[in-house]
Specification:
Layout lengths: L9 E8 L2 E7 L7 H9 L9 E8 L6 E9 L4 E2 L3 H15 L4 E7 L2 E9 L5 E9 L2 E2 L7 H7 L13 E4 L3 E6 L8 H12 L3 E9 L2 E8 L3 E3 L3 H13 L7 E5 L2 E8 L2 E16 L3
Parallel strand pairs: 2-3, 4-6, 11-12, 13-15
Antiparallel strand pairs: 1-2, 1-17, 3-4, 4-5, 6-7, 7-8, 8-17, 9-10, 10-11, 12-13, 13-14, 15-16, 16-17
Helix pairs in contact: 3-4
């Protein structure tokens, strides 16, 4: 456990997007110990508990736009470039901070600006938010003997067809495996093995459930099993359309709920809920 100490109290809000939960702090600057702070606060036994910590730093904008630097750290302290669920939750946190029911905010992520549009969902705690996730690019090259390597690393590959996978990058790396039944996959061992073999990647198993729908389970690098993954839903939907498994727009059904992925000319738009959970005051020390 980290011995990181806070110099002053820290105000957090906790949110989740389809069960993928985040602690969010709007701060004046990025603390030097942010990775250790994330480990401390995200620990579900000794901290507050979350899949990640998001730090937002307001930026000046000559055009009148609302802009924030967006920095996300996974629960293990590793940095993450982008998160669709995290961005939706971040949009809700900014709206709450500004006392607005609806707003548009530009999040300056390490991989470029992401536009978030927050709208009211008729609830005191839930909003709908759409995120312009950007384009899905070709992902990493995968060795032909991936299944053998994953098997040697402890993952069961019996349900995976050789060469069936595809990779994509939306600012962070993903690999998608079409299977007959995502629920039948031993994802804790399979996902960990794939991540270790490929050097850190988000792992998804999917199956089409209709002409415009897929089911998805996710192993997130730096967090493990999560109930939803927004960037993964975006990449999986795009790759499923490319493989003629479904047509767009795509409803992506995850253990935590559903999000919709639209394929636009300039990239992917992810739409789904964000829910406010609590305000947390973390004492200094």
């Amino acid at each position: 456990m980290t011995s990181f100490q806070l110099d002053e109290p820290l105000r957090l809000t906790k949110h989740h997007g389809l069960g993928n939960d985040f602690l969010i702090a709007l701060v004046d600057g990025l603390p030097l110990g942010a990775p250790m702070l994330a480990q401390r606060l995200c620990d579900r036994a000794t901290g507050v508990g979350a899949d990640g910590l998001i730090l937002g730093i307001e930026r000046p904008a000559d055009d009148g736009a609302i802009r924030y630097a967006f920095r996300l750290f996974n629960s293990d302290g590793s940095p993450a470039e982008v998160s669709g669920n995290g961005l939706r939750c971040f949009g809700q946190a900014v709206a709450m901070h500004r006392g607005a029911d609806e707003l548009t905010v530009i999040a300056e992520t390490p991989v470029g600006d992401r536009r978030i549009v927050v709208s009211s969902a008729g609830s005191a705690t839930v909003v709908q938010a759409s995120v312009e996730m950007g384009a899905v690019h070709d992902g990493i090259a995968v060795p032909d003997d991936l299944l053998e390597l994953v098997g040697a690393a402890g993952g069961s590959t019996a349900a995976i067809a050789p060469g069936s996978w595809a990779t994509g990058d939306i600012g962070n790396p993903h690999i998608v495996f079409p299977v007959d039944d995502p629920g039948a996959i031993d994802l804790p061992t399979f996902g960990a093995a794939v991540e270790s073999v490929l050097g850190g990647i988000n792992v998804h198993v999917i199956a089409p459930t209709g002409p415009n729908a897929i089911s998805l389970r996710v192993w997130e690098r730096g967090a493990g099993i999560t109930r939803a993954c927004g960037s993964g839903a975006s990449v999986a939907a795009k790759l499923a359309v490319d493989q003629d498994l479904v047509s767009a727009p795509v409803e992506v059904v995850m253990p935590g709920g559903s999000a919709t992925v639209a394929l636009e000319a300039d990239g992917v738009v992810l739409t789904g809920p964000a829910e406010f959970v609590a305000i947390i005051e973390v004492p200094n020390g």
